[in-house]
Amino acid sequence: MKGRWVLGVDIGGTNLVVAAVPAAGGQPTAIRSEATHAERGPDGAVERIVKMANEVMEETLSAEGGQRSDFAGIGIGCPGPLNLEEGVIVTTPNLGWDGFPIRGRISDALEMPASLDNDATCATFGEWWLGAGKGVRSLVGVTLGTGIGGGYIERGRLMRGASGSAFEIGHTTINFEGRLCGCGNRGCLEAYTSGPNIAARAREGLKHGEASVLPRLVDGDLGAITAETVYDAVLQGDVFATDLMRETAELLGIGLANVVNLVNPQMIVLVGGVTRAGEYLFAPLLESVKRRAFPSAVEACRIVPGALPDTAGVVGAAGVFVIDRVA
Amino acid sequence: MKGRWVLGVDIGGTNLVVAAVPAAGGQPTAIRSEATHAERGPDGAVERIVKMANEVMEETLSAEGGQRSDFAGIGIGCPGPLNLEEGVIVTTPNLGWDGFPIRGRISDALEMPASLDNDATCATFGEWWLGAGKGVRSLVGVTLGTGIGGGYIERGRLMRGASGSAFEIGHTTINFEGRLCGCGNRGCLEAYTSGPNIAARAREGLKHGEASVLPRLVDGDLGAITAETVYDAVLQGDVFATDLMRETAELLGIGLANVVNLVNPQMIVLVGGVTRAGEYLFAPLLESVKRRAFPSAVEACRIVPGALPDTAGVVGAAGVFVIDRVA
């Protein structure tokens, strides 16, 4: 592969992030981020990504020297399911850009090669390349956010599965009689532990009359409660929010115990804002994994927060571009 | 590796099976099988395995010519968890031979090299080497019997996991509020779908007053009901047994949907006596997988019965010996 730099793009339901990453691995520079505005459609988003990418290249080259051809290409991370061969979004509940040929559009506009992969796969690869899972032989990444996603890397190889949709841990069943999930099933892990579902469970509890500071934190507008609000309430010592957080961690632990018993990895790295809850999350989560998974498999597996909370996705997207060229 | 033949041993809770398998792959010859009698302890079992192995070698050589040195070694498949490095059984609920150095004992007695692997891993490898999953790039095997086990082969490589206990699908949670499992947890797949649990669920239904031919089939001794009895009742058109079988298949489908969404394999092969139920099992099972897993992942995955219902384990044990020598 020619070129000292690679661009990374992380397309999220909330933000678009673009950065320059050294092709040999290293911290991203010239990070740009702005609101996605998914509802305005994919064409406008591509325009803004291209504009940000050009700015990132200019800033990088003016600081580091060199020319545009020093950029080997652009790696794109995007919510899925995706058609990786064609570079097309199949369906994205959080974006609504179904059938859009995102890879070709960005590649054409920037006149450089582009790669496309699942956002959770990219974040996992970022943590393996430069973060908490550096060099780990078998690494599972789990992204906690609007959705629950995942990725798996074995001996440096991304395990994408037969149709490119491996490690959709958010849609594994932990209670077949449980909560209705956005995907239409009952009892998916995501139906309990995604940000919006944490907020929904909080609202349900409050409607059942649970006492809490939460209504006050949102000036009585329960619809404004988010996972962050719940965490704020935990920090204020709110009993209801603390119980809810512990229960969420235990449920997440059940999903991870399934991964431990199936994959038996050396490490699970958790990526996303929820990991800021620290011990409020990790202590009950680890307890729950221990209770459910085989002792030898639990012992072999470290479960840790990611080391790149804001940049795992964009760094990993660039990294996936690099290994796709080398492979 | 020197030698045209390899011995395979499949140690089961019910039977010990020994056979000779061509090292280059091929149908087993001179198959010997006898009751395990686990309760008589591991030393007696090793003695009988060694006796059977000697008989298998004699029979094979007298039919095919050659000498004892034409046998390269012996591959052992055994319920786990196992310590693969040391060749020791860690715990086996169905055998009770905890801590027994099975690989060394058999190797010493036969004066030939031996390998040891999980019985479900061996059965999966057998189906990949010579059976329904021949040459499939990503193959999950699920063994349905006294327990529910599993194995995974990617590009011809056994995925054993960081501590050798990967693919313990029987102990993945499908309902965290569900049935108590032998392992102490609630709602494991095995707690619903193993042979003994199918029988237990039948007994529970009968105690609740469900009408069925089952009591008649066991002369009123409900304790004598097995998964086979339930299947016999299905064949007689029994409504209760048919519903129970369909529910079992649906629950198995939930566990397999989790595997489809996590691993996204090209094929899942089901091994074990229950697969004799044919469409009674497969039709509702596939329906359940389709309902729960991502359409693209379901489309990419064939779910089929094994082609070596009685010999996958013993053939695979020999096969694992071969690839362990070559790797």
Descriptive notes:
- The structure is a homodimer of 327-residue chains.
- Chain A is an alpha/beta fold and 327 residues long.
- Chain A has helices spanning 42-64, 102-110, 119-130, 190-193, 195-207, 214-217, 227-235, 239-263, 279-292, 295-299, 312-326, and strands at residues 5-11, 15-22, 29-35, 71-78, 82-83, 88-89, 114-118, 138-144, 148-154, 157-158, 267-271, 302-305.
- Chain A has a five-stranded mixed sheet with strand order 3-2-1-4-7, sandwiched between helices. Chain A has a five-stranded mixed sheet with strand order 10-9-8-11-12, with helices on one face.
- In chain A, helix 7 packs across helix 8 (239-263).
- The longest helix of chain A is centred in the last third of the chain and has 25 residues, at 239-263.
- Chains A and B meet through helix 8 and helix 10 of A and helix 8 and helix 10 of B.
How is the topology of this model organized?
Two copies of one chain form a homodimer.
Chain A: E1 5-11, E2 15-22, E3 29-35, H1 42-64, E4 71-78, E5 82-83, E6 88-89, H2 102-110, E7 114-118, H3 119-130, E8 138-144, E9 148-154, E10 157-158, H4 190-193, H5 195-207, H6 214-217, H7 227-235, H8 239-263, E11 267-271, H9 279-292, H10 295-299, E12 302-305, H11 312-326
Parallel strand pairs in A: 1-4, 4-7, 8-11, 11-12
Antiparallel strand pairs in A: 1-2, 2-3, 5-6, 8-9, 9-10
